[in-house]
Amino acid sequence: MSTLPPPGCPAHAQHGTGLLALSAVVGSSDPRAAYRRLREEWGSVAKVELEPGVPAWLVMGYRELLVITRQEQLYSRDARNWRDLNEGVVSPHSGLLPMMGWRANVIGADGPEHRRLRKPLDDGIARIDQRRVRREVEALCTDLIATFSERGSADLVNEYATIVPMLSLASLFGLDSEEGRELLNALIALFGSAADSQAGNRNFEQILLDTVRERRSNPTDDMTTVFINHPNLRNEAERLQSIVVMISAGNETVTAWISHTLRLTLTDPRFAAHLHGGRLGVDDALDEALWRDPPMNNMPARYALHDTELGGQYIRRGDCLILGHAAANDGPEVRPDGADEGWGNRAHLAFSAGPHVCPAQVPARLITRTAVQTALHLLPDMRLGVPADEVAWRPSPWTRVPVALPAEFSAARIPARIPTRTGR
Question: Whole-model pTM?
Answer without folding.
Answer: 0.89
